[in-house]
Request: fold
Amino acid sequence: MESRRGEAEIDRLPIDLLSHILVFITCFKDLAQASRVCKKWREGVKRSLGHREKLSFVGWKMDDDSATRILFHAYSLKELDISKSRWGCRITDKGLHQISLAKCLGNLSSISLWGMTEISDNGIRQLVSGATSLQHLNIGGTFITDESLFAIANSCPHLKSINLWCCRHVTEHGLLVLVNKCQKLESINVWGMRVPMECFVCLVNISPALHLQPEGLLPLAERASLLPVF
Reply:
């Protein structure tokens, strides 16, 4: 419907109201199209990103620069998921460094980098250095080493859960440092790691409330520790 002056009703919406409406659009392709309508809509899209508390790039072809451009406007973001998907969300250490400069970093309570095989300890170190509110971290399926766990242990005192699924370059030393320093840690996914079973018993001795995944791992580790050594 158009007004008497030939202006569409939606174009008469205040920019703040328009941005709140655009928050409900979750498809990045639709947001990109909306931003091309006019300058007002482009500004509305930017402001809508500032209202979002959750953001997922799963299923989208994102690279370092495109992800960074979006995150620089997401001031209120608390949960970020940039896990690898079949469509190839590709983030490297360069992208993690750029994201570490975003204003939202200190507010993030949850980050998922699952399957991001192009990141390394350097990128993780940059990212977590400012993620002081982080409670949940998924870095399963990556090639990180103990160096990443040392950085996480030093920078994320509020960490409650971490997914280390198939992180086969992490050793028992990294796990021990993490559990010792992150005293709020409640859960670790250690599936597929190349760590001695005795290490898991040690972790629970340090933090009795710690939950190790997959289920049934701890009883198996405890039985293994009782076996005689010949």
Notes: Residues 13-51 form a domain with the Monooxygenase fold (CATH 1.20.1280). The first helix runs from residue 15 to 22.
